[in-house]
# Entry
Amino acid sequence: MNKYVKQFMLIALCLLFGTGAAFAEKIVIKGSTTVLPIAQATLEAYMKANPGVNISLSGGGSGDGIKALIDKSTDIANSSREIKANEVALAKSKGVNPVTTVVAIDGIVPIVHPNNKVKNLSIDQLSQIYQGKITNWKEVGGDDLQIVVVSRDSSSGTFEAWAEMVLNKAKVTPRAQMQASSGAIVQAVSKNKYAIGYIGLGYVNKSIKALTVNGIQASAKTAISKEYPIARNLYMYTNGQPAGEVAKFIKFVLSPAGQKLVAKEGFVPLPMAKETSKKGKK
# Structure
């Protein structure tokens, strides 16, 4: 009889744990590699505080995240650019209603190898470099070295923001080395004394040198004030107003605790922006 009791208890435990797993809350997040560190830091903190929630995260670029939202294969699409009108139209044709949540502010920073003596470039100089019209560092005050242009690929929101704010939608030189992530840009530039790239503020580290643009250094203050000329918002998109666990997670990202993690990752938290705007109105 004891044998049957043990078997019954084992089956009951399996059913109990199996049912718990089946009803565990799961959130899928895909998209921008710029927003990736923010999402990673906040989801780790959120899952630690909510052990019954499982959040999966992958990069690939803003375009991929928005495509996944339209295809209904993600709950949240991270993006470093605004969703386009044609993407909204496609989404609505498939019964998806993209809703925007701004989660942070960012500056796109041009970077070079630490040994490069160039410290500042104007928007026009950056534009000409990325179009392939300026090809030697000596043309912008550097050494007599050929410039190796490193760029994000076309699925990237950072690529599109750079194309709009720096290139004025002109085409990037076909000689550019296209990279799939911000981390790959940092790695490529840190190992090549000829190279120039661009990354989100949160990716700046000691392995590369950040340049000023038009004499302005990218910082929380200059990004909020828009004094820094290549500043933008960072987004999380959902299908309709976020609900359930997704709403709770986004609420955490926007909370003081979540925005503290945004700042820790090197990006600009929203409370600072709100505080600055209030001061400006006085």
